[in-house]
Write a structure and sequence with these properties.
There is one protein chain. About 40% of the residues lie in helices and about 15% in strands. The chain is an alpha/beta fold and about 425 residues long. The strands form 5 sheets. Strands 4-10-9-8-7-5-6 form a 7-stranded mixed beta sheet, sandwiched between helices. A 4-stranded antiparallel beta sheet has the order 13-14-17-16, covered by helices on one side. The chain starts with a helix and ends in a 7-residue tail after the last helix. The mean pLDDT is about 95. The protein binds 4'-deoxy-4'-aminopyridoxal-5'-phosphate. 4'-deoxy-4'-aminopyridoxal-5'-phosphate binds near residues 95, 123 and 366. 4'-deoxy-4'-aminopyridoxal-5'-phosphate binds near residues 94, 171 and 175.
């Protein structure tokens, strides 16, 4: 089944606007995605009809609000094939989900001298929390090196993990290079070593069918805003037996069982990790994003994205003076393409693309250590989603030509 991206595009009100007099070609989906009308309507419907605080409400609106939030939790669980909605903790985003593991699990279970293993691909969100843990608790932070194409191999992971490793935290797909990692095999490496496995799914969950039970991972973190949902909603999936052993990260209302003046007992999982009033409207509207993605069918979406990615790669590789980063085999990537143009600063690339209505991201992509390894300060990055069409790829090609002619790339001095 081929995916009708043009039809999908019509569901996204933002594409009615123009940017610099041109149709919007939004190729910054790895940063955040646009929202379909159904998600925007769910947000306004929440405020117009159901707005109330959740937790222990007995009036009609409070019950409706609670039901909407719990339906979204159940949809998120189904989307990643978690066994139960209770495996899903609402967080603000991937970053908060990883920090929850660092505070709730690692600070409780990891002693000085034990190790957290990450990879060289990691977003700062899956690096800095472990640096803080290392600083405060004497835990050692180590990394699996990537190969010249920015791939993480199972052999490299096996070579780097040690008997002291308690947690292997790795990205399922690199936001900077597009590399897909062998998730199941890496989870197995962690488990064979007696470690837990945390998967950063921020880039992968929105695009590829995810099955946490097949992976067997202990934790999975992802963000709603990268999968058509509102900002302010993310998830930590955790195996129930692991979540049960965790301490709360934030204390306050909604996460307790009983409170005395000098002490408290914790509520059940997942409420134990959801102190205070959450982003109720955003959590409620997230369900509409899952509905939309399920109606599209992730397999068809992914095939469409990879066809566009193949074209982006072809356009870039045809130009002299263009470096494309990441795996050369498209089967080892998702819909993210990072590149540089000889002698041109990525910011200038981004601005010239913008003048053509093309939104790409430039800079270090929150992966400074990886950029250092690639011996660059940053790259330009195009990333696709279900509403991108051939027109966007053509606009991208026009933008590229504009950069090349403006900076006379490849011209002899
Ligand atoms: N990990 C990866 C791989 C990412 O791409 C991102 C977002 N760029 C994050 C973590 C952080 O996501 P958020 O900003 O939604 O917390």
């Amino acid at each position: 089944m081929t995916f009708d991206a043009r039809r999908a595009r019509a569901d996204f009100p933002i594409f009615n606007r123009r940017v610099n007099g041109k149709p919007l070609s939004y190729l910054d989906n790895a940063a955040t995605t646009q929202k379909p009308g159904t998600v925007i309507k769910a947000l306004t419907a929440y405020y117009e009809r159901h707005n109330a605080n959740i937790h222990r409400g007995v009036h009609t609106l409070a019950e409706e609000a609670e039901r909407l939030v719990e339906e979204s939790r159940a949809k998120a669980a189904r989307f990643i094939n978690a066994a139960k909605p209770e495996n899903m903790v609402f967080t603000r985003n991937t970053t908060e989900a990883i920090n929850l593991v660092a505070h709730g699990w690692a600070r409780k279970h990891m002693k000085a001298g034990t190790e957290v293993l990450v990879t060289e691909l990691e977003h700062h969100s899956n690096l800095v929390p472990w640096q803080l843990l290392a600083r405060d608790r004497g835990v050692r932070l180590r990394q699996v090196p990537v190969d010249a194409q920015g791939r993480v191999t199972v052999e490299a992971a096996r070579r780097t993990i040690t008997p002291k490793t308690r947690l292997f935290a790795f990205s399922a797909m690199s936001n900077a290079l597009g590399t897909l990692t062998p998730v199941k095999e890496l989870v197995d490496v962690a488990h064979q070593n007696g470690s837990l496995a945390l998967v950063d799914g921020a880039q992968r969950v929105p695009h590829l069918k995810t099955d946490v039970q097949a992976w067997g991972c202990d934790f999975l973190a992802f963000s709603g805003h990268k999968m058509l949902g509102p900002t302010g909603v993310g998830f930590l999936y955790g195996k129930p037996e692991v979540l049960e052993t965790m301490d709360p990260f934030l204390g306050g209302g909604g996460m307790i069982n009983e409170v005395w003046f000098e002490r408290s007992t914790w509520g059940p999982v997942p409420q134990r990790f959801e102190a205070g009033t959450p982003a109720i409207a955003d959590c409620a509207a997230f369900g509409a994003a899952v509905d939309y993605l399920e109606a599209c069918g992730l397999e068809a979406v992914h095939a469409h994205e990879m066809a566009l990615t193949a074209k982006l790669l072809e356009i870039l590789r045809a130009e002299e003076g263009v470096t494309v980063y990441g795996p050369t085999d498209i089967a080892e990537r998702g819909g993210v393409v990072s590149f540089n143009i000889a002698g041109v600063h990525p910011h200038d690339v981004g601005q010239l693309f913008d003048s053509e209505g093309v939104a790409v991201r430039v800079g270090h992509h929150c992966c400074q250590p990886l950029m250092r390894k690639l011996q660059t300060g940053g790259t330009a990055r195009a990333s696709v989603y279900l509403y991108n069409t051939e027109d966007d790829i053509e606009a991208f090609a026009r933008g590229l030509k504009k950069v090349i002619s403006f900076f006379k790339v490849g011209a002899k001095a």
